[in-house]
Write a structure and sequence with these properties.
Layout (H helix, E strand, L loop, with lengths): L14 E3 L9 H5 L4 E5 L5 E5 L6 H13 L5 E3 L4 H9 L11 H15 L1 H8 L16
Helix pairs in contact: 4-5
The structure holds iron/sulfur cluster.
């Protein structure tokens, strides 16, 4: 599976906002205002982005909170720090990790089976990553 494309406004680092998925839910500006900014996207809408990577335990906690409550899981983690990966898996946000060791990936796949059903679980087991939120039969939306 290829990792999602980060929005170009993100600063370099492990956390990023995926390009093109912003509905301006506003969650990051409430949970971690010091870490997120918003910009005018060239496609004609506002988009949030990571303006600063977390530097302290408190900021990391704010970042994880923003990631947990954001819409569409558009805040992602591409780092390989096992403690952060484990915390995200425990928050049921393991699908937001671009890279997971096998044991954690298996745990995420099992959780997906339980929480989101057969098709999403199968999708994860096959290594396609996060299953589409939109059911396949709602092709007109
Ligand atoms: S978390 Fe997602 S939907 Fe919410 S403001 Fe950021 S990019 Fe937009």
């Amino acid at each position: 599976m290829s990792a999602p494309t980060p929005h170009r406004a993100n600063v370099p680092g492990d956390f990023y906002v995926e390009d093109g998925c912003c509905t301006m839910c506003g969650v990051p500006f409430g949970e971690a205002p010091e870490l997120f900014g918003q910009c005018d996207d060239s496609r004609g809408y506002m988009h949030c982005f990571v303006k600063r990577q977390p530097q302290t335990t408190s900021e990391l906690s704010d970042m994880l909170s923003a990631l947990q409550f954001s819409e569409f899981e558009c805040i992602r983690y591409r780092g390989t720090d096992r403690l952060i990966q484990l915390k995200l898996v425990e928050l049921n946000c393991g699908e937001a990790c671009d890279h997971l060791p096998t044991d954690l990936q298996q745990r995420v796949n099992r959780d997906v089976w339980k929480r989101r059903g057969f098709l999403a679980g199968l999708w994860a087991e096959l290594g396609f990553g996060r299953a589409p939120e939109k059911p396949w039969w709602k092709f007109w939306r």
